[in-house]
Amino acid sequence: EAEVAQSPRYKITEKSQAVAFWCDPISGHATLYWYRQILGQGPELLVQFQDESVVDDSQLPKDRFSAERLKGVDSTLKIQPAELGDSAMYLCASTRSTDTQYFGPGTRLTVL
Amino acid sequence: DQQVKQNSPSLSVQEGRISILNCDYTNSMFDYFLWYKKYPAEGPTFLISISSIKDKNEDGRFTVFLNKSAKHLSLHIVPSQPGDSAVYFCAARRVQGAQKLVFGQGTRLTINP
Prior knowledge:
By secondary structure, chain A is mainly beta. In chain A, about 0% of the residues lie in helices and about 50% in strands. In chain A, strands 2, 4, 5, 6, 9, 10 and 11 form a 7-stranded mixed sheet that branches. In chain A, strands 1-3-8-7 form a 4-stranded antiparallel sheet, with no helix packed on it. Chain A starts with a strand and ends with a strand.
């Protein structure tokens, strides 16, 4: 069964450093999402792509976060500079159209 | 503004009994609802969904009930098994427009042997 791939699985960084996360969606899935899940809360959408275009980035802190999906397939989420409050699980999900969203295993970020 | 709420942070159930997880929503524009299950250090796994045109959807041991007038849905698991121990998230979205999911805070279900 096809899965959403994410790397790295874990990342520890110091405050003010830059970090990047990578996501490879299920083949053929045009829509890709990045969510952030803080411990004890549900995931919250950061950015949604339809192919290579951003559909919704209203909750993305654009002063420090950026996301791209240049060829409409895999995607990168970057944080620069990282802050203590960015410690969270970063989840990528994909879907074909209006179907169910399938999630990857996530990247656990710890900012020291 | 928490549009999707799961008011029980945790639930403990005896193996073999029924587990009932509850979820409330406030946005009447939501018309599709999903339940996800999450184990530690893993991403959420899709469990079951329901459209607003239905009031019940069943898949094996899992049944989701939707009460639109009360803006309430529930997930029933019967019989409960130890492997069901996980955090369960309720999520909602609109079918039209951007299909972003709005999640509840999650309920940690523990099945006791």
